[in-house]
Amino acid sequence: MTTSTSPGTCTAVVGLHWGDEGKGKVVDLLAAEHDTVVRYNGGANAGHTVVVDGQKFALHLVPSGILYPGKLAVVGNGVVVDLEKLLEETEALEARGVSTESLVVSSRAHVVTAYHKLEDEFRERLAAGDGGGSAIGTTKRGIGPCYADKAQRATAVRIGDLLRPDALHEKLETACRFKRALLEGLDAGEALDADALTSRLSAVGERLRPRITDTTYLLHDQLRAGKRLLFEGGNATLLDVDHGTYPYVTSSNCTALGISTGTGVPGRGLDRVVGIMKAYTTRVGAGPMPTEQKNETGNRIRERGREYGTTTGRPRRCGWLDLVATRYSVMINGVTDVALMLFDVLAGFDQIQVCTAYDVAGERTDRFLPDGIDLAHAEPVYQSLPGFSEEITAVRARRDLPATAQKYVDFIEEFLGVRVSIISVGPGREQTLLA
Ligand code: GDP
Ligand code: IMO
Ligand code: MG
């Protein structure tokens, strides 16, 4: 399948909400017209679903383009890699007949270890205190602690270190010393034993050796050879550590702005930025979500959209589409066109609400509040649009959508100021309308 827009040299796919917008499906679609698919941020906190011929694949670290044979799959330097999860994932794919031979990993990507996952859990428990406190509701995949160590330097391990056992051992001894002090009293077993960690990680390193490379030079070589690159954002804009609803965010730059640092490819090479949005809004974990519906509407969306986490299985918080937040994300990412996902889920509502402004302490604003404390005080202002009763999962052209559904898409385009180029009406590859 090809889209109606001509492929650029570089395309980015980024989530415009709080994750799980359907990035995996769109990356899979666009992979057809690209040569290389690149992850640049996050780690196994991401869960990207692709459904091919009724078969469902959930990808966490491996770029979603892997399902197209012949595509180079790259895990860039900005990703934090849980090696055991990566091996599990490649083995599971191979067992299902998907070749992962083309997968390469940056020698400068950081390694998520067992103690990062312990630390993630430990911090969340401490932050929660007695009554919920300031826990973030992380995926407990060790993402925050690993990025923190990257910034701290002395306690960090990079993929390239796995191939230098002596240096690795020294680094792990330092790291374990720090972590033992931090995780005092916790029975960490082998997770804080530098010898055991060294032998385990070196063994994994040996298995990974053929895949470990300088991905920055590789990507620049590709660009010079005229190859088309597709960047796959993990997590999403409102979870970006700088531009999201801090502190209720993840620890990386999930936006298109993160591509340069996460891969070494300068931003000016980007021709197309596809923003992925749901026809409504969801969020997993803690933090404000102005349009959340803790009622029958939210429950209906959750059940129709099967809104349960791909990574953790947690029920997602569901609510109406927040266009104030979405327009902010379009601005931050330099979005060129939008994919409107899970549109089929909204069938059957008499009226559909969309949030077009916030009331904050009696003042109306159409600006997003990219701060988790400020945003908690925003009251959504809704505009009501007529719904559609017909199921739309079998529709294949925008003009064949019910008239009110077409109006919903028109309204979104006008509000966001960008074209909706893809409309998705089901999880399958074929359930896609290209506009
Ligand atoms: P990602 O993290 O952005 O890749 O999204 P997830 O895979 O975590 O969550 C999106 C879910 O919606 C997955 O279960 C997809 O299979 C599913 N999905 C994607 N597009 C559609 C759609 O248009 N309609 C429906 N009903 N499901 C969809
Ligand atoms: P994809 O790529 C949804 C959320 C977590 C938590 C916060 C911090 O599938 O869209 P972390 O473990 O990263 O420290 O958790 O970020 N979160 C996601 N929510 N989809 C994701 O990824 C997410 N990645 C992180 O729920 O609130
Ligand atoms: Mg997901």
Q: What is the count of helical runs?
A: 12
Percent helix range? 25-40%
What's the assembly state of these chains?
A: single chain
* Strand tally: 20
**Structural shape:** globular
* Through-space gap between termini: 13 Å
Query: Which kinds of small molecule does this entry bind, naming each only once?
Result: guanosine-5'-diphosphate, 6-O-phosphoryl inosine monophosphate, magnesium ion
Mean pLDDT: 95
The main sheet orders its strands as 9-7-5-2-10-1-11-15-19-20
Q: Percent of residues in beta strands?
A: 15-25%
Tell me about the biggest sheet? 10 strands, mixed
Spans of 5+ residues with little confidence (pLDDT < 50)? 1-8
Spatial extent as radius of gyration: 22 Å
How would you classify the helix and strand content by structural class? alpha/beta
List keywords for this structure.
binds 6-O-phosphoryl inosine monophosphate; 4-stranded mixed β-sheet; 10-stranded mixed β-sheet; 435 residues; alpha/beta; binds magnesium ion; binds guanosine-5'-diphosphate; disordered N terminus
Write the layout of secondary structure elements.
Layout (H helix, E strand, L loop, with lengths): L9 E6 L7 H9 L4 E4 L8 E5 L2 E5 L12 E4 L4 E3 H13 L7 E4 L3 E3 L1 H15 L14 H10 L12 H18 L11 H15 L3 E2 L1 H10 L4 E4 L25 H6 L8 E7 L2 E3 L12 H9 L12 E3 L1 E2 H11 L3 E5 L9 E10 L2 E3 L6 H4 L2 E9 L16 H14 L2 E6 L7 E3 L1
Parallel strand pairs: 1-10, 1-11, 2-5, 2-10, 5-7, 6-8, 7-9, 11-15, 14-16, 15-19
Antiparallel strand pairs: 3-4, 12-13, 16-17, 16-18, 19-20
Helix pairs in contact: 3-4, 5-6
This protein binds guanosine-5'-diphosphate (GDP), 6-O-phosphoryl inosine monophosphate and magnesium ion.
